[in-house]
């Protein structure tokens, strides 16, 4: 994994706050408890799965999608680990996200993904992402990929809006692997 990455613990967009999960949130998810600011439809099955991937203190882990106006958690977004060298040597991460059913169709996923991608691009542009395995380093962009069901028209549209145009095959589950080429958001 790339060391010395400076992603902020919170990413703020016009309507959302993307906050790295803390231990209390993950404990509640794992125990099946509810916290006061959770939307009635949160957590979704994918949120519970993400709790199993959570890594304390890691800015590349899962984040709550918080509706800023109410403070309610309406989904989650994050990476399945930090940047790793792809076959061509470029640091690459996989992003995943989801929004509660009543929050869909409101641009929440689009805004959340855009905010997180902007943070990744800023980290690369600031030189916070060095060579794979290095601390600090000369910096550079991180390529981002996402997997999506071919029948998920809304998900495909969100990815397309953010420059995920390259198709890199499918997963074992038949999901399309979409890639956002390096430099799209810079």
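-> sequence recovered:
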């Amino acid at each position: 994994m790339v060391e010395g990455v400076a992603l902020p613990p919170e990413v703020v967009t016009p309507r959302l706050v993307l906050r790295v999960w803390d231990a209390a949130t993950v404990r509640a998810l794992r125990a099946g408890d509810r916290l006061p600011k959770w939307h009635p439809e949160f957590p979704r099955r994918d949120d519970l799965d993400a709790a199993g991937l959570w890594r304390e203190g890691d800015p590349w882990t899962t984040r709550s999608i918080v509706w800023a106006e109410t403070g309610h958690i309406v989904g989650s977004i994050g990476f399945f680990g930090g940047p790793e060298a792809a076959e061509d040597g470029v640091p690459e991460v996989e992003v995943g996200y989801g929004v509660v059913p009543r929050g869909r169709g409101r641009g929440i996923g689009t805004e959340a993904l855009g905010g997180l991608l902007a943070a990744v691009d800023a980290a690369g542009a600031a030189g916070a992402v060095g060579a794979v395995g290095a601390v600090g380093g000369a910096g550079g962009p991180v390529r981002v990929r996402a997997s999506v069901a071919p029948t998920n028209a809304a998900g495909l549209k969100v990815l397309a809006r953010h420059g995920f145009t390259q198709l890199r095959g499918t997963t074992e589950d038949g999901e399309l692997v979409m890639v956002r080429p390096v430099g799209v958001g810079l």
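Residues 129-138 have pLDDT under 50 and may be disordered.
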